[in-house]
Amino acid sequence: MQDFLVIDQITKSFGALRAVDAVSLNIAQGEVFSLLGPSGCGKTTLLRMLAGFERPDHGRILLRGTDITDLPPEQRPVNTVFQNYALFPHLSVSENIAFGLQMQRRSKPEIRSAVERMLALVRLEEQAGKSPGQLSGGQKQRVAIARALINEPQVLLLDEPLAALDLKLRQHMLSELTALQRAVGTTFIYVTHDQGEALSLSHRIAVMNQGRVEQLAAPGTLYESPANAFVAGFIGDANFLRGTVLQLLPDGQAQVQIEGLGPSIVSGHAELKPGTTVRIMVRPESLHLSAPHQVAGDSMNNFTAVVEELIYFGPHQRLRLRAGSQILHVQQSPQDQTFTLKTGMDCSVRFAPGSARVIGE
């Protein structure tokens, strides 16, 4: 299972720029695997090498044990869905979906049956005779996906497929993509710079930066246990605090003197030593507020802060606080608010030891 698709030490340079730098990945059959990172991190270049549009300078790509590194795109059991849909404007929805099978010279009854099956799968039966210009953005993307899937590829590559859609339509299409992948069971490799898309869609995510994989893990692990500050900052929002290790505690915890705040108990790791300067990550939703000077439970991990900004987002609100020399960002639901917050007022801030962790640079 784990040897279905193997990317072995793939490297690609464009002049002096090393776009992909010795990347190795094993992708399981039936997995939704995302390549996530900022623009220029190498994720699209890696996808293009999987598709056969670019040749790597070094390394191999193996699919079911067969080396496909040098195969042209048309000889790979791989199809690609592009951001701009790439539909034929002069063909109907049905004709667009059927195009790949027609190029393979399949029989008309076989093509008709396959197209009907794909139309039902993407719920476009009533749009079969329309041209792409008569469709919405979401419908066009579903046609592009159906056209790619009708050839029954072993791997479907999706290159920022929802980037051109508005927010509500992207959210709707994410649900549709998840349901579609479950129905067909095809391995999806999904390229995106949107961490929300990757978190909600993927079984595993490779976070890329400057041509390398910073961390490969399941969405929950990336969010809760990022390997370093880059991953922590790219996957969601985070507060980064500087501190000095005072002592190591049982169960992998440490007591840390946080600059400007005071002693706190956080999740550590085996390499920590007393006296070491460390960086601590706390997610905005892990910070809890209470009325001024109200301390809940143990005084450890409780601080006084001043509200500098409060922004209302409907289902949640975002606050910027100043605590000593530290700026803290807090996210909370209005339903969780037990007292009235206003800019300029004091409040107490606390966090559980398990919600703050020492991370690498």
CATH level-four homologous superfamily name of the largest domain: P-loop containing nucleotide triphosphate hydrolases
- Shape estimate: elongated
The major sheet is characterized as: 6 strands, mixed
The radius of gyration is: 25 Å
Mean pLDDT: 89
In the residues, how many domains can be counted? 2
Q: List the total number of helices.
A: 8
Strand order in the largest sheet: 6-7-8-3-9-10
How would you describe the overall organization of this protein?
A hairpin with a 2-residue loop joins β1 (5-14) and β2 (17-27). The chain is an alpha+beta fold and 361 residues long. The model has no long low-confidence stretch (mean pLDDT 89). It has helices at residues 43-51, 93-103, 108-121, 137-149, 167-184, 195-201, 219-224, 229-234; strands at residues 5-14, 17-27, 32-36, 58-63, 66-67, 78-81, 155-159, 187-192, 204-209, 212-217, 239-248, 253-258, 262-267, 277-282, 288-290, 302-312, 317-323, 326-332, 346-350, 356-359. The chain has eight helices and 20 strands. α2 (93-103) packs across α3, α2 runs parallel beside α4 (137-149) and α3 (108-121) crosses α4. 23% of the residues lie in helices and 35% in strands.
